[in-house]
Design a protein that fits this description.
The complex is a heterodimer. By secondary structure, chain A is mainly beta. Helix content of chain A is 0%, strand content 51%. In chain A, strand 5 and strand 6 form a beta hairpin. By secondary structure, chain B is an all-beta fold. The chains are: A mainly beta, B mainly beta.
């Protein structure tokens, strides 16, 4: 089945220790998104890739970076995690960047910062 | 700017009864509306969307939603609730004027179906 996969599902890191979250997709979609969802809140878009073109949201902290080495994979790097970065991180994909396109989400990675 | 309001944080309904989860929106152009469901410690699952055409949209798991332009609403409905429908439901909107990049989500409504 075509799907969006996130690894790991649960990640524990220490304050200030860099961490990388992984997303892969078998849908062959052109667009990949990273969202941050804090407890009991709506998901918030951090950035997205349209093919190789990186698009950062204006209010995304510099501490968050992303890489997309190929169509299938996208990584979220948190350079120096703070306690406030503890959240669920959701990866999503869409076929194109049309307003009508559906975004399909992975299961998420729950990040804990100690 | 777009915005979405889900006025109820929590909705409780008895199993077998009809359910409604409310959503209202504000956009500057024509809205593109989506409903997602989130089970505990899981990602969001797409239920249905309104793009254009028939105001009544049918989606996954027996859910449907009615687009009402005059009331700027897109309420999610199901004729007969199941215990397994208990989850967190998010309404989301885009409009063509501000681009396709971002889905603006409401704050979510937690649905509990009581056996």
């Amino acid at each position: 089945d075509a799907m969006v996969i996130q690894n790991p599902r649960y990640q524990v890191t220490q304050f200030g220790k860099p961490v990388t979250l992984s997303c892969s997709q078998t849908l062959n979609h052109n667009v990949m998104y990273w969202y941050q969802q804090k407890s009991s809140q709506a998901p918030k878009l951090l950035f997205h890739y349209y093919d190789k073109d990186f698009n950062n949201e204006a209010d995304t902290p510099d501490n968050f970076q992303s890489r997309r080495p190929n169509t299938s994979f996208c990584f979220l790097d948190i350079r120096s995690p703070g306690l406030g970065d503890a959240a669920m991180y959701l990866c999503a994909t869409s076929r194109q960047r049309e307003v009508s396109d559906t975004q399909y989400f992975g299961p998420g990675t729950r990040l804990t910062v100690l | 700017a777009q915005s979405v309001a889900q006025p109820e944080d929590q909705v409780n309904v008895a199993e077998g009864n009809p359910l409604t989860v409310k959503c209202t929106y504000s956009v500057s152009g024509n809205p593109y509306l989506f409903w997602y469901v989130q089970y505990p410690n899981r990602g969001l699952q797409f239920l249905l969307k309104y793009i254009t055409g028939d105001n009544l949209v049918k989606g996954s798991y027996g859910f449907e939603a009615e687009f009402n332009k005059s009331q700027t609403s897109f309420h999610l409905k199901k004729p007969s609730a199941l215990v397994s429908d208990s989850a967190l439901y998010f309404c989301a909107v885009r409009d063509i004027q501000t681009g396709a990049n971002n889905l603006f989500f409401g704050t979510g409504t937690r649905l509990t179906v009581i056996p």
